[in-house]
Amino acid sequence: MVSSSPKVQSYMGPLLIIAVLFSVFGFLTWVNSVLIAFFKQVFDLSTVASNLVAFAFLISYTVMAIPASMFLNRTGFKNGMSLGLLVMATGTLVFVPAVRMVSYPLFLVGLFVTGIGMTVLQTAANPYATILGPRESAAQRISFLGIANKLAGIASQYIFGGLLLTGANTVASAASLEKIIAPYLILTALLVVLAGLIRFSSLPELSEEQDNPSSSPAAASQPVSAVQTRIWQFPNLILGVVTLFCYVGAEVIAGDTIINYGRALGFNNDEAKYFTTYTLYGLLAGYLLGIVLIPRFISQQTALRFGAIYSLLLTVATLLSSGFTSVLCVALLGFGLAPIWPAIWPLALNGLGRFTKTGSALLIMGISGGALLPLLHGYITDTVSPKMAYALLLPLFSFILYYAIWGHKKTSW
């Protein structure tokens, strides 16, 4: 026990640095739920048009994931993350002229640029979480990072929800856009400072050897990278990308649409503005439970199965209930979603060896589910009904369940 202490300490410092980055991810990602509701009022948008906030922010993961992997191979992960933070700072700064010009498209440009920087960060940070310790406890470490992510997301709701959506009986106007400037200038400054801190931090550089199958007992039992010559020959990865696509789409739908769903059911701004925090509290509870249970009491595969089944049941409950009960069912999806992300990464990257960086980039591309699926959800909301739009979650969670039971085990097509 004592002899392992230095190793634990050597992991803890880098893990805390990655946790700070995950907090940045969480804050800037989850504030989108407030922006969606706010811009919908200010610019009098349809549901589909307001969901372009999530689209602009997350589609960058598809556009930039592979280039980000190539960029990181050239610059190294630490330098790349520092530059990614500076790109994010550029994106948040774009919000200032967007306010002055009262331009929704320019806000979307700022979100897209911010998403590009975050793509670089995510591509680098997620493999660290898998590699900084034994692979069998990777889901536990990602749960820890998820807690940092969700706590920052909760903070974003209270800060921006209180700032932008307070006032039950008022209609947001173009003049209210001015309230965005100060917090986004502060965010810009913080991102620049964090870029400098990361650049001169003690974060170790990631090497391919660190994720070599032979270095991990779990991977050693599946040394496929020794015989596979193309990234597409890893079914556990390709199916994992699709699973991540489904998961992120479901998470964004559960978190970013719940405020507008509540308003569609008759709740006013003051009542609905913190609905996303309910989803985040569910995610937070799930991550805390994951740290306690995985892998000591249950495997990450079992946690993934539980998350999919639980979420399927809650989706059915959302469709069959009404009023605040239906809103609460959407929020409680957070608890079922929590174990899914941490479990997908180690299962999808298992045995990739020298393909790990490219595999990570492909998984990052799966985040585009959060860009595309909410648009489909918005279309169903506008053309059918807000409640029936949540039926879209049923096939998403069904595929996640398939991956949890069978898909992650496939070693060939």
TrEMBL record:
Its main location: membrane. It holds the Pfam family MFS_1. It is a multi-pass membrane protein. Residues 14-413 form the Major facilitator superfamily (MFS) profile domain. Intake of glucose and galactose. Belongs to the major facilitator superfamily. FHS transporter (TC 2.A.1.7) family. NCBIfam families: gluP (TIGR01272). This is Glucose/galactose transporter. It comes from Spirosoma linguale (strain ATCC 33905 / DSM 74 / LMG 10896 / Claus 1). The lineage of its organism: Bacteria, Pseudomonadati, Bacteroidota, Cytophagia, Cytophagales.
